[in-house]
Amino acid sequence: MGKMNLDILYNRRGTDSVKWDHKDFVDSRVSDNALPLWLSDMEFKVADEITDALIKRIEHGFLGHSMPGDNYFQAVQGWYKRRFNWDIKKDSIFYSPGVLPALGFVLRGFTKENDGIIIQEPVFYPFAELINGTNRKIVNNQLINDNGDYSIDFSDLECKVKDPNNTMMILCSPHNPVGRVWTKEELIKVVNLCRENDVLIFSDELHCDATRSGVTHTPTMTITDYNKIITAVALGKTFNVGGVPISQIIIDDEELKEIWHRETRLKHYISFAPPLDMVLTETAYNKCEYWVDEVMEYVEDNYNFLVEYLQKYLPKTKYKKPEGTFLAWINFGVYVDYEELFELLITKYDVLIENGRTFGESGAGYFRMTVACPRSFLKEGLDRIVAAIYELTDK
Ligand SMILES: Cc1ncc(COP(=O)(O)O)c(C=O)c1O
Predict the structure, then answer these.
(1) What's the CA gap between 20 and 39, in Å, rounded?
(2) Are residues 213 and 295 in the same domain?
(3) Cα angle at 302 between 82 and 360, to 5 degrees?
(4) 36-62, pLDDT tens digit by residue?
(5) Atom of ligand 1 minimally distant from the CA of 325
(6) Are 149 and 226 in a shared domain?
(7) Alpha carbon distance 177, 27 (integer Å)
(8) Mutate to test the pocket of ligand 1, among 120, 206, 249 (most ligand atoms within 8 A of CB)
């Protein structure tokens, strides 16, 4: 099979794509011409096998009520065994219409109002929104930022897990947006601290397949027999199908399964799954590994391009590739004030990247930008960013 051509930029306008058609979701002043380098959504078409399988399924002509069956479970098990040597038992896999809905179920089912929920900012901001929305308290174990090298503040984490009000931790692994892929040693420390203090871990591993070459993600549940861990995985990031509401929630412990069942099935009547989404999942996991590998190679090259580009035009940024995710987390603070730059990018240079402050106060100064796109598109975005920075520094 020949290599895919990932240099093509497709027209996605008019599909109600959040990234392309609903840019005002970020800022109401944004022009329709703005280059959308925001949102963790790739500009690469899904694998042909997925399109073909969906067409075939639709042509069958029936889209009645469906439930996950053996083919679905085997596809999920096969993927995680092959890629991470993770043996997931069939009856540990639960369906959820997305990772965030699952987090909502877990917050409501496993913690109570006013409980403290530990997160590690700067982090994917819907975590904080869901904690607030379910009347729990955000407890921030802020990551240590040593000039762009992020690590976990374990002594602070120890204090926070020891507080009996804090009953759950949301671990973002790999971490969006800072791009850390936590090492086995770091994960063992986190798990041990939580275990000693009976804190439930929600391990969000949605970005597990988007790692740099030579970097391996470790699923939290593979390093411990601590029973209070719930893991969320999904194919949204891996296969660029973020709009598809299907994710796999992995729970081994029988008591935890009972609580999950009560919360999802009995309180929200979640148990069926969309038939097209299951076909997509099976096809992706069984037939499209080559697609992920090629896309990740291209992303790696884009990161190399980005590093070289910044060295050339903005050398003081000292930017390094992250270990994981297809999101660049960049600080232009040595050149400009980030709020001024954000304003100028939105109002004059027509570039849409995300303001780091959205991910918590500790993200202030940074921008998040997706690099899973044709290189020419990335270059155009960077050219505009450089022009905006030059305008601000020439003032
Ligand atoms: C860390 C993380 N968790 C969850 C989600 C959203 O997952 P879902 O669309 O399945 O709710 C995202 C999407 O960007 C994410 O980055």
Answers:
(1) 10
(2) no
(3) 85
(4) 999 999 999 999 999 999 999 999 999
(5) 16
(6) yes
(7) 20
(8) 206
Quick one: 185 and 212 in the same domain? yes
**Closest among 9, 124, 46, 5 to 381, alpha carbons compared:** 9
Residues with CB under 6 A from ligand 1: 40, 98-100, 124, 172, 176, 204, 206, 234, 236, 242, 247
Chain position carrying tokens 């329709």? 32
Alpha-carbon distance 272 to 311, whole Å? 51
3-state helix, strand, coil in the chain (%, to 5): 45, 15, 40
Do 275 and 144 fall into the same domain? yes
Looking at the domain assignment, is residue 12 inside a domain? no
The number of distinct structural domains making up the chain is: 2
- Cα–ligand 1 centroid distance for 288 (angstroms): 21
Same domain, 235 and 250: yes
Mutate to test the pocket of ligand 1, among 99, 105, 127, 326 (most ligand atoms within 8 A of CB): 99
Task: Tell me the CA–centroid distance for residue 104 and ligand 1, in Å.
Answer: 12
342 in the same domain as 206: no
Span 81-127, pLDDT tens digits:
999 999 999 999 999 999 999 999 999 999 999 999 999 999 999 99
2-48 pLDDT, tens digit each: 799 999 999 999 999 999 999 888 888 988 889 999 999 999 999 99
Burial call 177-212: b when 16+ CB within 10 Å, e when fewer = bbbbbbeeebbebbbebbbebebbbbbbbbbbbbbb
Which atom of ligand 1 is nearest to 96's Cα? 10
When mean pLDDT is compared across 147-161, 225-239, 264-278, 292-306, the lowest value belongs to 264-278
Q: How far apart are CA 217 and CA 173, in angstroms?
A: 8
> Do 300 and 217 belong together in one domain?
no
- Where in the sequence is the domain holding 87, given as residue range(s)? 62-287
Question: Ligand 1 centroid vs 190 CA: distance in angstroms?
Answer: 21
Ligand 1 centroid, distance to 126 Cα (angstroms): 8
> Ligand 1 center to residue 149 CA distance, Å?
23
